[in-house]
Amino acid sequence: MPTLQHICEWIYTTHLSTSIRQSPYSFPAIETVHTLGIAGVVGTIAILDLRLLGVVMKKEPVSHIARQVLPWTWAGFVVMFVTGLLLAIAESQTDYFNWAFRIKMVLLLLVGINPLIFHLTIYRKVNTWDIASVTPLRARLAAVSSLILWASIIVFGRLIAYVNT
Hints:
Blueprint: H1 3-12, H2 15-22, H3 26-52, H4 62-90, H5 92-97, H6 99-120, H7 126-129, H8 137-159
């Protein structure tokens, strides 16, 4: 048996996992808060992405929008991460075999790499294009990638509940 599978099975038998799974209220409550966290993350990121694409707030500096939404993005991320971890703990044994869960995890990795590359490259020169209504191609590509990745994460996250292993 692979080590990761063994760890997932052990997590599945823990008191926390069992408590979340067997409670009539815990799992739905955690899932609801997880959805709100996702809405916070994706909503704030979408505002910045749509500005980068020149769809909204064209006269607003990109850096100003980024400063405004970043605290909300991080707050939503913390909520989404903690509740997502609790949901994964509750279903660790079944998630191990679930292809939709695996794809979602890969997409989460990619959606984390996307802003890292954006901030380490094109955003370092934001002062040269901050108020441009048409942002550089690399900024627009990062925005499109972000929107596609987040939409895909939501789709595969929903599929987790409906995919038979």
